[in-house]
Design a protein that fits this description.
The complex is a heterodimer of chains A (108) and B (122). Chain A is mainly β and 108 residues long. Chain A is built from no helices and ten strands. Chain B is built from no helices and eleven strands. The chains are: A mainly beta (108), B mainly beta (122). At the A-B interface, strand 4, strand 8 and strand 9 of A face strand 5, strand 9 and strand 10 of B.
Chain lengths: 108, 122
Amino acid sequence: SSELTQDPAVSVALGQTVRITCQGDSLRSYFASWCQQKPGQAPVLVIYGKNNRPSGIPDRFSGSSSGNTASLTITGAQAEDEADYYCNSRDSSGNRVVFGGGTKLTVL
Amino acid sequence: QVTLKESGPALVKPTQTLTLTCTFSGFSLSTSGMRVSWIRQPPGKALEWLARIDWDDDKFYSTSLWTRLTISKDTSKNQVVLTMTNMDPVDTATYYCARMGYYDSSNFFDYWGQGTLVTVSS
């Protein structure tokens, strides 16, 4: 399968920890990467590889993987973290890309 | 400083061919390991990967859209061009180009253009 499945919506209280998950067969072979998208803006990379953050991404963002599930964890969620989050990975061929359906994160 | 910017028509008619150009700076597509992808997002919907072109001119397409897509590059102009034939209203979307990399056996998109909204309507 070349699909990645995400929960459509997740909420978290301000300052609490939230985990956003992404499931798919390709994740047994490849790590996911994660991007954050705020309304009207282009996506921004937040996590790639095993658990790597681009420069400028706060260290409250972390990634992990187990079996066919990749997770993005935000430890101490802030109001500015409210956004849509998309996972993506290489597909089973290794050469193409598949995106998850996105998770809308609400910070209460 | 890496930047990418998409350009093309805002409105196309059904059955027409769409041509989009991604003009980038801050890197060269003649450098080993460099790749550029096109990704689209219908209004209110998820991201969808379309195509990729590599520094060595390797090209890969979405398995669901490959018959309609062609990607090419002009290294001298720092441009990547995507054409999509037989446009339909369901192709209405914001089209992004993004620089693509690989690390830890994962792919990632580290720089994105601002996106360009393409509406398909008669």
